[in-house]
Amino acid sequence: MLDEGLERQDLTALNFVTIDSASTEDMDDALYAEELADGRLQLTVAIADPTAWIAEGSKLDNTAKIRAFTNYLPGFNIPMLPRELSDDLCSLRANEVRPALACRMIIAADGTIDDDIAFFAATIESKAKLAYDNVSDCLENNGTWQPENEDIAQQIRLLHRICLSRSEWRHHHALVFKDRPDYRFVLGEKRRSTGYCGGTAPYR
């Protein structure tokens, strides 16, 4: 790594999990929740840290600035970084130690986030690669999928509590997004966009 001298908090013992689609390889964020003695929940969000591998001002750094983000298209994506980084070295893969930028916050039962938010460099080791559909089915007691152990099951329960409290907070503070139609790209044989559709009607 380029930043060997950077002090990073060792969070590898914590039960971080990633939650993405089943096919995702570029896991760029991981979550760890913990219930405090007073009943509030402490959430640590770890973001993949590509600066550990990319020198500032390098050609790769400048290319990433131009691309700005990964484009997700039907059946494939155009990554901001080379796949060797986005899908491997930088990806927060389960059971692999990775550098990360972390944010730690405390969330009250009503969804309020405490003002004392900490940002710091860290190393983490995700303990499970979870898929949205499996987690959703598990919470709704549908299907056969179950977390691999009680530690992961506890993380799912705590993160679900945070999700519900934050949704309630946004509802009361008028920050809930209105329903809107989803738009999908229509691609030709060479994966070039030939239009897009909203709902059932195509646009070109």
UniProtKB/TrEMBL annotation:
Under which name does UniProt file this protein? Exoribonuclease II
- GO: which molecular function terms? exoribonuclease II activity; RNA binding
Q: Which residues form the RNB domain?
A: 8-204
InterPro entries, alphabetically?
NA-bd_OB-fold, RNase_II/R, RNR_Ribonuclease
The answer to keyword Hydrolase applying to this record is yes
Native organism is Salmonella enterica I
Taken from the UniProt entry, a GO cellular component term is:
cytosol
**What Pfam families does UniProt report for this protein, alphabetically?**
RNB
